[in-house]
Amino acid sequence: MRRAFLNRPRLVEKASGFCGLNVLTDSSNPSIFFLVTHWMDADSFRVWHRSEQHHQSHELIPAGLKLDSSFTSLTIGNCIEDPAGVQNISDAIQLQTSAISRWLIRSDTLFALLLAPDGTIRARNQASQRIFPLDPARSFGLTVWDYLVCSDADHLRQRLADAASEQEDHFLLNVSNGQQNPVTLEVGIVRCSAAILLIGAQEHRHDAHFQTEILRLTNDLSVMMRESAQKNRELQKANVTIERLARTDALTGLANRRTLDEAFQREIARAERQAQSLSIVMADLDRFKSINDQYGHIAGDQVLAGAAAVFNRQLRPYDLAARYGGEEFVLLLPGTSTENAVAIAERIREEIEKTTIATCPRQITISLGVATWQRGEGADVLVARADAALYSAKTGGRNRVVVASNTRD
Predict the structure, then answer these.
(1) Which of 9, 93, 126, 344 has its C-alpha lying 20 to 30 A from 358's C-alpha?
(2) Which SS3 state, helix, strand or coil, does residue 113 take?
């Protein structure tokens, strides 16, 4: 049984516009299952549905197929256009859709036909077997048009084609398949993402019941859509939070090395393309290890956070401050000359010198090295020159700004 489902997509996955196939089953009753195909657009689906490969794919599924209870879900496809869609389908099946589907399939008073956009009957429930009986000579390809009188067929085609219609999708159809007298049906349309559910009752005998059931189904579907929308909003918020955490340093809130590396590549390419200046400042808190040793790591963390706050106040909106590691920081300054970078570094040095931390009674100072990008220079070389300037600031007495030498002089 499983092999039938595994073989079937071998044909459909070659079709133009095909995105994926979901096989969804009800674990409490494995004879109830859905085949959901995903397409880039409606035209691609129509071309596939009229093709010989589509007919061949039906022949791969044995008659009387019943799945074993352990086979509850399978996803096969080349790609998934919306990764959240799989989760939404799973949520819908678990919350409401399974119960609604079981009720519709077993209903003896309300008929239901699942139609493709071109009118092909994809599935039918128990009640519809009497009104839309199977044709023994045709195992597939039956359409709703095969059962309707001409005028009503045109009416239904217009209803299905006009997705933006403001008309109430609740009207009468006359059915005649050539084997029985015409019967009048009161029908309603429930539009799905890639199919149409035609629901109805025969000869007005169950008008009140029909209206009640349509209202109940509509309400259930509305609840599912609201819950799905809420889950999507929660997922988007969670993704934003995850992305932010993945790109920032947890202690200081500054950019991390990953974000800094990406920014380096982007800004160097921009400087090369637009012939602009690009400078960086490499900074290191002076005697930071002794702060940790003398006052503890909590005090050390507060000193790091205090320095980060100074960077954020002194830098411009388009600058980037990143924690490079330990007590070292890198400031990326696009469109900034050496002279202006030195001025920024000096303002930072002066403000940190005046900063007080309650848990660290001694004065805090910082050493900084400034380097300006030279055409053709990579990020690693630029950082190395700034680091050399920082080393000179450290060995020259600390709490000072040193400019890197020009390697091409």
Answers:
(1) 344
(2) strand
